[in-house]
Amino acid sequence: MRENGYSLILASTNNNHADERQCLEMMLNQGIKGLIVEPTKSNVYNPNLSYYSLFKQRNIPILSINAQYEELNLPYIAIDDIKSGHLATKYLIDKGHEDIALITKIDDNQGKLRMKGYFNAFENCNKVFKSEYIYTYDTESKLSVLDQFVEHVVSKQIQASAVVCYNDQIAYYIMKKLEKLGIAIPNDMSVVGEDNSVLSKLEDVDLTTTSHPQELLGEKAANWVLNTIETGKVQPSELLDTYIIERSSVK
Questions:
Q1: What is the distance between the alpha carbons of residues 78 and 16, in angstroms, rounded to a whole number?
Q2: Whose CA is closest to 11, among 24, 2, 1?
Q3: Rounded Cα distance, 74 and 130, in Å
Q4: Whole-prediction pTM value?
Q5: Which UniProt key words apply to this protein (predicted)?
Q6: What are the pLDDT digits (tens) for 59-98?
Q7: Pseudo-torsion of CA 118, 119, 121, 124, nearest 10°?
Q8: ω before 186 within 30° of 0 (cis)?
């Protein structure tokens, strides 16, 4: 960005609509030339959508990354989240697992798409998932839902032999909790994450996960904004590919 004469202004919404509104108001007042945004709670109604219309009215290019506000026609660059969920689930099915749990986030669009991939994997393999093995959480309920899943596994309320987690952070939390309670990974429970974060290699058991090329996504997002500003033409959206990264958390 600096090489092209632009400075970078960063702000965090903390996945909170009130914080997002403050960020957007600040950006409007700063007179920015372009905006890269990761949507806040992208799977629920957002009271701040009109701010994005203001940016568009002022001909300020907006690029959405990792997720979309489906109500708005914004260009985006994101990982193929449906494929990510499908690959994670199919990997477990191919390993012989049938009772596969899912822990996913429902207030963000990525969680919905990854859950669709989970469903697709079962359907494509002519198998049936168990609704009671699906655990959904939002930003506020995350820890309570994760602890509930752990409790259900330990008490044998569910008989899942494997779990697909929304991301590596969730997988890391689940692995640590289960191992403290005597559930061995992967002998007693196989775990797959999604996004290949630094957390995937922090435990004694390295996490099988799906790829998420964050640096590539960032580079593409920056180039998208620069090209759109310089040419005056909105650049196309792009869906980045993903693949399974096999490590040692699956039996």
A1: 21
A2: 24
A3: 35
A4: 0.92
A5: DNA-binding, Transcription, Transcription regulation
A6: 999 999 999 999 998 999 999 999 999 999 999 999 999 9
A7: -170
A8: yes
